[in-house]
């Protein structure tokens, strides 16, 4: 980055991709970190569904499609304005009065048609047949405005007619202008692959049938669309919030074996997070002239070299936490996150801000790191609660029932706390099981896998690192995630360090034991 540009960004980047793209503009492609497995996984022709929690990098990955090099000469179409989806929900509300078995296929047909019209709009200047296929106009407005205009023309027509929706959609899709437009698109895609990336809403109400059915229909459409067209160069990528994905699979999607396949879960590993955060810091320090000599030449695909040359010189190799227990510095910072890039970026920027006030930047003293992590983790906990506010109304008040818990406890304690929340749940939704499910989904409570009293380490599993639910039984030994200690005033009554990392070989690289 140029020095003038770097003055506008934080040392470890911004907490959201939209801000980085706006600030860095064309330089964002240089700032983007390419050495993660998600990049290649997301470009697999079989992959159409990319699932991640808030802050896991969905928007950054959708931006990557426009400058990636694996598929040459790609045409990337980014549909990332949630207001457009709100219009869809409004327009299809009358179509979802039937059973979901009837409604979802109908909405999926609308999605399919809409996706083709978006492609036609973006490619209208490349072939006269494609321009002719823009049967509802070829407006030069933003995608969201185009979607609103198209839906007003399309769905209102269906709602005003007495004919069968599916039959009429089939008739329009078989129109010779649409057929010719698709053929022209496929001709272009042979030389220039086309990727349509749809970034869905960040807040979902799982008890909103319209919202859930519309999203399920998008997934069904995506599965069929990619099956039919990805091998011919037209790819559809749908980014979905992991906060609602379990509910969609269990309650809404009509056939999970048929329509949910080859998902890419944005579960980050330590080496990827370390290299990502170090890459950003490296760019910043180099631009401002503060990069040390030992950090100049780095093999970015080598985790150990990145740690030795880019993390340790600034953060130090180890520290003593607030209890005086020794820890490696990177595992210490990382265990106060839920393994998401945004959370690590926020904590590291908080550390950098404190070091700047203390006039030690770019070196971070152990006490600076400890105080900054304690300061930043509260905000991280609040964001997790906010991300579930539409899934679980009054979630902030519900989790207050955990206040004062010991950091490690027996699972039956949850059933003692659960009744305290009954008045905060929507009518008919409270149960001890629902309470346990909520706190597991949010990643507040995990299940202990191993306690080593001698060394003082506790290893635990949390749902956010899994593709399935994490049941919390009354007989389980449970643990509170370190990120929530301050938010819930947790009683840290043991001289133990909780490491909320899954039992996976890549986490052995942390060597925290």
Structural account:
- The strands form three sheets. Strands 2-3-4-1-5 form a five-stranded parallel beta sheet, sandwiched between helices. It has a five-stranded mixed beta sheet with strand order 8-11-9-10-12.
- The mean pLDDT is 88.
- Helix content is 47%, strand content 11%.
- The protein folds into three domains: 37-265, no CATH class; 270-385, no CATH class; 392-510, no CATH class.
- The longest helix has 24 residues, at 100-123.
- It contains 22 helices and twelve strands.
- The radius of gyration is 25 Å and the shape is globular.
- Strand 3 (194-199), helix 12 (209-229) and strand 4 (234-241) form a beta-alpha-beta unit.
- By secondary structure, it is α/β, with parallel strands linked by helices.
- It starts with a helix and ends in a 14-residue tail after the last strand.
């Amino acid at each position: 980055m140029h020095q003038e540009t770097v003055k506008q960004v934080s040392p470890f980047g911004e907490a959201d991709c939209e801000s980085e793209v706006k600030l860095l503009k064309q330089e964002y492609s240089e700032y983007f970190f390419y050495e993660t497995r998600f990049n290649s996984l997301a470009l697999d022709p079989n992959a159409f569904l990319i699932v991640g929690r808030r802050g896991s990098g969905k928007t950054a990955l959708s931006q990557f499609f426009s400058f990636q090099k694996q598929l040459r000469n790609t045409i990337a179409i980014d549909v990332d304005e949630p207001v457009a989806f709100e219009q869809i929900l409004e327009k299809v509300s009358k179509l979802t009065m039937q059973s979901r078995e009837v409604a979802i296929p109908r909405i999926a047909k609308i999605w399919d048609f809409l996706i083709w019209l978006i492609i036609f709009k973006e490619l209208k200047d490349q072939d006269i047949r494609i321009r002719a296929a823009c049967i509802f106009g070829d407006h030069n407005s933003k995608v969201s405005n185009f979607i609103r205009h198209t839906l007003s023309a399309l769905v209102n027509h269906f709602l005003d007619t007495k004919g069968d929706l599916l039959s009429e959609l089939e008739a329009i899709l078989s129109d010779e202008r649409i057929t010719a437009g698709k053929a022209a698109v496929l001709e272009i895609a042979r030389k220039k692959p086309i990727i349509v990336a749809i970034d869905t809403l960040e807040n979902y109400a799982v008890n909103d049938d319209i919202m859930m059915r519309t999203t399920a229909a998008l997934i069904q459409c995506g599965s069929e669309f990619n099956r039919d067209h990805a091998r011919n160069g037209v790819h559809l990528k749908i980014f979905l919030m992991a906060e609602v994905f379990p509910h969609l699979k269990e309650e809404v999607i009509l056939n999970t074996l048929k329509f949910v396949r080859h998902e890419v879960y944005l579960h980050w590993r330590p080496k990827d997070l370390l290299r990502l955060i170090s890459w950003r810091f490296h760019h910043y320090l180099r631009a401002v002239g503060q990069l040390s000599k030992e950090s100049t030449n780095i093999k970015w695909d080598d985790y150990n070299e990145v740690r030795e040359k880019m993390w340790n010189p600034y953060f130090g190799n180890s520290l003593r936490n607030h209890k005086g227990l020794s820890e490696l510095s990177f595992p210490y910072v990382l265990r106060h996150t839920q393994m998401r890039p945004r959370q690590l970026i926020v904590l590291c920027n908080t550390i950098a801000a404190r070091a700047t006030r203390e006039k030690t930047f770019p070196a971070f003293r152990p006490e600076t790191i400890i105080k900054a992590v304690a300061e930043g983790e509260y905000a991280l906990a609040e964001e997790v609660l906010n991300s579930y506010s539409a899934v679980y109304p009054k979630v902030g008040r519900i989790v207050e029932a955990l206040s004062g818990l010991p950091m490690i406890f027996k699972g039956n304690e949850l059933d003692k706390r659960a009744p305290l929340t009954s008045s905060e749940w929507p009518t008919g939704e409270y149960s001890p099981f629902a309470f346990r499910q909520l706190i597991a989904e949010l990643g507040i409570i995990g299940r202990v896998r191993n306690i080593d009293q001698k060394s003082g380490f506790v290893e635990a599993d949390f749902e956010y690192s899994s593709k399935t639910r994490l049941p919390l039984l009354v007989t389980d030994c449970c643990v509170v995630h370190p990120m929530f200690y301050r938010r819930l005033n947790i009683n840290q009554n043991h001289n133990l360090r909780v490491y909320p990392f899954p039992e996976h070989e890549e986490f052995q690289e942390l060597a925290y034991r």
